[in-house]
Amino acid sequence: MSFPTNFVWGAAASAYQIEGAWDEDGKGPSTWDMFTRTPGKIWEGHTGNIACDHYHRYKDDVAMMADLGLKAYRLSVSWPRVLPDGAGRVNDKGLDFYDRLVDELLSKEIQPWVTLFHWDFPYALFLRGGWLNPESPKWFAKFTEVVVSKLSDRVKHWITLNEPQCFIGLGMGNGEHAPGFKLDMREGLLAGHHALIAHGRAIEAIRSKSKQPAQIGWSSAGGVYYPATQSPEDIAAARQATLSVYSESVWNNSWWCDPVVFGHYPEEGLRAYGEAAPRFTAAEMKVISTPMDFYGCSIFFGVAVKASSSGSVVIARQPPGHPHSHYLWKHTPTALYWGPRFFTERWKLPMVITENGMSNSGDWVSFDGRVHDAARIEFMSSNLLQLEKALREGVDVRGYFAWSIMDNFEWAEGYKHRFGLVHVDYETQRRTPKDSAYWYGDVIRSNGGALDKFASAGTDAPPYVIKETMRYINAHLSEMFNIKDLAAHMRCHPDFLSRKFKKHTGVDLSLYIRRIRIDHARELLKNPDLLIDDAAEQSGFTDRIHFSKVFRRLTGQTPGQYQRQFRVERDASLHTPLKPKNPRSVHA
Ligand code: NOJ
To answer: Which residue in the list 104, 187, 284, 355 is annotated as catalytic?
Structure first.
């Protein structure tokens, strides 16, 4: 696997989606606090009032992250928790929460990656026009200064805005998200322009206030198109679709990322939006393009496209029955290969996958007390394998954050969706790590090696599951274990393990275990004083009869005969004078 040793393996969540404590310790309301109270806006009238109660349970949650092996955690700071009115008075108790959270993470060697805006805009500032107010970048810069002054002695990684496409497109365009506006394109893009200036101002604020050199990026969500076939025409079509600006929506990459990286809106976008495009000054564009260190993006799925005979881009529909998530998002792992490739080609910045994951409809606690989310394991492994392919081909990907560390409030969808690696029972707040959480821990510990389990067969190198199985057998020879135990250790089904083992080694797994045990016993029996019972026990056999039977079947001798013969041979060799085999060659 090509993951570099310092690859950042993390998981993410955001303040409103997990914290709860919506009005505690002096927190001011956010637009989401108000929006969730509007009848009909959120599925079954859910709110984030309590959510996962992470505000009170953060210590246990961090301990759980550490147990799972997480190396980094992407959290967001609630702006109105820190500044209840959005500007001016600082709420020390609110700021203190993040201070403690960061300490807790660091005490468990988990790197905090802090997002400054993940959609919970202060309601007080919304009443002053929100992102439509040209003052909004200054408000955001001030808020950033407060947070950075407090946390930057320990926090190094910052993300300014989370997915402007979403909070402008859904919050101001179709009204599905807070504040629930349905503005026309001109106003939506103006709000977006201010948000972009806010992004630049936040970078300036971080650079000037940070107590250590900071790594700064943002998180974009503009959509990925991938080629339906590997033909150069389809690849070109996918590139074009991924980087185009469409006049009817703000769902694109380049309108948002060109200004941030190049300092200008894309020509194609200015043409597409025409009169609706915002007026801007050179000074504003300079602020917007304040250099950042990495390009963060969330990728959950992609859309397959191909080139038509006339050269235009057409969507290549998936056949009926193509796998999809509970959200009905298609399972399209190649998006994790093509997205980073196209983005790097254009913006030439190191990439971080700030979110990737799936909402799974079958995530409930089973009779055995566990959550068996095999689909998520399959989803993440195939996505990660595609990301690995991009890395192998030279795309500079620095990190990957699973969305999400735990089930949470999915905005307008309420608690309908479960994206977590950890299941949350919202009535009891009980956390149950899903199978995928343990699996992801293995992936992290092996720096991606565990993904081998899922890599397609056909490569010569034995996959991780085989290597680890062999290692385990050798390291535990004196213990009694069977294939079921081995499979439980590898977190896979016994049949899967046996099949895979046979396929890659040509040997039956149970025969392999017996052979290794007998080889071990043969070494032990070279000691003439060792009792056969002891040899049996030390090579993991339940009793002497079974041991002798297997020994005989595999070597043609009983353990006693072997021991006697070994002794005779050894004694004979001790008494035979050493003679060169070919005396002529010695004298030549
Ligand atoms: C992106 C958003 O940042 C996050 O808040 C949301 O829950 C996930 N997508 C899943 O929709």
So the answer is: 355
**pTM (two decimals):** 0.81
Q: How far is the CA of 410 from the centre of ligand 1 (A)?
A: 7
Q: Domain check: are 392 and 510 in the same one?
A: no
Digit-coded pLDDT (tens) for 344-383: 999 999 999 999 999 999 999 999 999 999 999 999 999 9
Which residues span the domain enclosing 552? 464-564
Spacing, Cα 585 to ligand 1 middle (Å)? 78
Give, using CA atoms, the residue closest to atom 6 of ligand 1. Answer: 410
pLDDT > 90? residue 464: no
Query: Is residue 579 a part of any domain in this protein?
Result: no
Active site residue 355: yes
Please tell me whether residues 21 and 126 are part of one structural domain.
yes
Nearest of 15, 70, 8, 105 to residue 436 by alpha carbon:
70
For residue 16, report the distance from its CA to the centre of ligand 1, in Å.
11
**Summary mean pLDDT of the chain:** 94
pLDDT at 446: 92
Residue where a domain stops, chosen among 432, 454, 476 = 454
CATH of the domain at 522: 1.10.10.60
pLDDT for 210 beyond 60: yes
Say what the pLDDT of residue 586 is: 41
Domain shared by 130 and 276, yes or no = yes
Assess if residue 109 is contained within a domain. Answer: yes
State pLDDT tens for residues 313-351. 999 998 899 999 999 999 999 999 999 999 999 999 999
163 is catalytic: yes
What is the count of structural domains for the chain?
A: 2
Q: Are both 149 and 35 inside the same structural domain?
A: yes
Residues 53 and 101 in one domain: yes
In a domain, residue 148? The reply is yes
CA distance 44 to 56: 25
Return d(Cα 503, Cα 331) in angstroms, integer: 27
* Distance, CA of 263 to CA of 290 (rounded, Å): 8
d(CA 580, CA 196): 85
- CB of 196 closer than 8 Å to CB of 288: yes
Q: DSSP assignment, residue 70?
A: -
- 117 shares its domain with 223: yes
Question: Which of 484, 446, 196 has its CA nearest to residue 454?
Answer: 446
